[in-house]
Amino acid sequence: MSQPLIPAGPSRRRTLQWSTAAAAALALPAVRAQAETVLRIGAGHPPPALAYVLVADTFFVPEVTRRARERGLNVRFIKAWAGTVAKLDGIVEAVQKGALDIGLSVPAFEQSRTALLNYGQYFPFTTTDPLLQARVATRMLKEVPALQESMKPYGLHVLAMSASENYGMMLKREVSGIDALKGLKLACAGANAPWAQAVGAVPVQLPIGENYQAIQTGLIDGNIYFATGFAAFKLHEVAKFYLLADFGSLVSNSMFMNADKRAALPRELVAVIDEVAAESAVKIAEISAKRHQDAVDANKDKVKFI
Q1: β-strand 156-171 against 222-225: which pairing, if any?
Q2: What per-residue confidence (pLDDT) applies to 34?
Q3: Is the pLDDT confidence value at 1 over 70?
Q4: How far apart are alpha carbons 44 and 31 in whole angstroms?
């Protein structure tokens, strides 16, 4: 009769215990290597001032983390807001090169790379309702393959497109008609420069964070922006008039993900990211709609609305 490979009794139990512990120790490095997924997310704007970054900071990141954990997946985000990794005109490049895994872009500042995603900028005076615009944007992304295809040459996947607040004009002096806009220097995002040119104004591509000093020093006479800019960037101190032009709520932000990083993630995690990204677009619209009216109401004693 053949002898057992492991002796019976206490010796056998100790041997089994050591064997189990050894197997666990050997497997531990592999488990740890897969335990945590690190995702770098960034934007050119700061989170409190702009709804699309605020939602990413307070909803997208924690909600992806929470839902992933429920599925046994451990995700940790490294956040790089306010241009700490990429400025407004460099989000696409940062995601393409892997400096960011997920980037929040303002396509108007990256026209050469995001031409199709700027379609909203070419059709002002549409709806002033961000929620309606958000629904249209989500449907466009699903039903117009060219939008997604346009970013593949850069190795990017479009997670979501979101709507802005209703655009108007902040001005240093009061105007009484379209003719009064001729010759005025107006800060623009780039893609909406034709709005200024169409009425004889001079477009100046300038990030919103630089508008205060530019208006104060006379470099520009105003800008094309949202009413929330008064509080967020203290522009009520230098621009005392706001033209309710109703350019409309436009598709003005996109959330990109590095395609290679996306392909390397577990399918369950990708599903969570896609789900929360779509919900984020709705939340951005809800916040944008409320912010516009709140900004108008809050600044009536500081700014003249025309």
Answers
A1: antiparallel
A2: 53
A3: no
A4: 35
Amino acid, single-letter form, for residue 90: G
Q: Tokens 């993630």 label which residue?
A: 265
Tokens of 213: 């000093």
pLDDT in tens, 261-304: 999 999 999 999 999 999 999 999 999 989 888 888 888 888 89
**Between 124 and 9, whose confidence is greater?**
124
pLDDT tens track for 164-186: 889 898 999 998 888 899 999 99
pTM of the model: 0.76
Q: What percent of the chain has pLDDT over 90?
A: 59
For residue 15, the model assigns a pLDDT of: 45
Mean pLDDT to the nearest integer, 194-198: 89
DSSP collapsed to 3 states, the chain: CCCCCCCCCHHHHHHHHHHHHHHHHHHHHHHHHHHEEEEEEEECCCCCCCHHHHHHHHHHHHHHHHHHHHCCCEEEEEEECCCCCCCHHHHHHHHHHCCCCEEEECHHHCCCCCCHHHHHHHCCCCCCCHHHHHHHHHHHHHHCHHHHHCCHHHCEEEEEEEEEEEEEEEECCCCCCHHHHCCCEEEECCCCHHHHHHCCCEEEECCHHHHHHHHHHCCCCEEEECCCHHHHCCHHHCCCEEEEEEEEEEEEEEEEEEHHHHHHCCHHHHHHHHHHHHHHHHHHHHHHHHHHHHHHHHCCCCCEEC
Separation of alpha carbons 281 and 6, rounded Å? 62
Q: Which two tokens stand for residue 55?
A: 């939602």
How far does Cα 46 stand from its chain's mean position? 10
Amino acid at 155: G
